[in-house]
Each structure stands twice: as structure tokens, then as C-alpha cells.
Amino acid sequence: MQPKRERNQHFGTLDLIMMVVLCGTVSSVVGAAVAGLLHDTRPGRARGNAEAFALQIRQQHENHQKPESLDRAPASVESEVPPLTGGQIGRDPWGRPYQYTVLSSHPERKPVVLVWSGGPNGQLETDTSALTQDEISGFRFGGDDLGYLDRSPASPGASR
Questions:
Q1: Are strands 86-91 and 112-117 parallel, antiparallel or unpaired?
Q2: pLDDT tens-digit profile of 93-112?
Q3: Beta bridge partners of 112
């Protein structure tokens, strides 16, 4: 009996190509998963939270208005604390309070609610001290501030 011939145990060209393709596929899948974990979602959460706070503030203002058909508001409305027109509310994803202001320069219009965060650097670069309801069409947040400007339509019958 003749001994079996030993085969060469080296990688062939086809084997090498398959290994490169397999390693590339695995690294791209793992890389995409790691990149998704490293992506910072705080700016998106900050905008979403600012929108929720703005809608809550608007709701508070709308619920506080007296019914037009009554000479006097119901006791439950009179006992409520009047809505605030500016200040701080909640915490942004970086742990700092949101700023907000309510613009209501015209009594026939619904108030415009602006809620914003200082963003990643924490510096409030948006100046709202001279902002009026008539100037909101060109409003932009300053620096890296993030927020929401509630431009809900005016009350029925109100002129714009």
C-alpha cells in the first residue's frame, strides 16, 4: 500500500478573496452599529422637548382665557394662577433649564410661544428681549441654541 499523498494546505486565490469579502462585510455591519451608538441624539431630543413645552404653555394660556359669553369666568378659572410670560421651564438634555417667552402684543391674536435651550455649549445666544409678535417671520435661533417657535394660527376672525 502506498501512503496517501499529502495535499498542500495553503490558501488559494479564491480562498483569499472570500476571506477579504467576509471580513469587509463583517466590519461594515459592526461599524454601522457602532456609529449608530456614537451618534448624539441630544439636539433632536432638545427640539422635541422644546416643542412639547411650547404646546403646554400655549394650552395653559388658552385654558386661562375667560369665556366670552359669560360676564364672569367660572370659579375654577379664577382660582388658577395666571400664565407666565417668560422664564425657565424643565431641563434640556444637557441638564440646563429651557428658556421661554410668550409674545402677545395684540389682544386679538393667540400668543406666540418661544422655547429654547442653550444647546451643547450652554450659552444662550438667542436674544428675545426686543422680539415682538409682528417680527417672528424672520426669527432665527442664535449660535447653537435649539428650540421651537409655536406659530399657531391666529384666533378665528382676527386680522393678521
A1: unpaired
A2: 999 999 998 886 555 667 78
A3: 103
| Global pTM value | 0.61
Mapped to the 3 state alphabet, what secondary structure does the chain carry? CCCCCCCCCCCCHHHHHHHHHHHHHHHHHHHHHHHHHHCCCHHHHHHHHHHHHHHHHHHHHHHHCCCCCCCCCCHHHHCCCCCCCEEEEEECCCCCEEEEEEECCCCCCCCEEEEEECCCCCCCCCCCCCCCHHHHHHCCCCCCCEEEEECCCCCCCCCC
Instruction: Give the separation between CA 101 and CA 77, rounded to whole angstroms.
Output: 22
Yes or no: say if 46 and 93 are a contact pair by the CB < 8 Å rule: yes
pLDDT tens profile 14-68 = 988 999 999 999 999 988 888 777 777 889 999 999 999 999 888 887 777 655 5
Q: How far apart are CA 119 and CA 99, in angstroms?
A: 11
Q: Which residue is associated with the grid cell 410661544?
A: 113
More confident residue, 106 or 135: 135
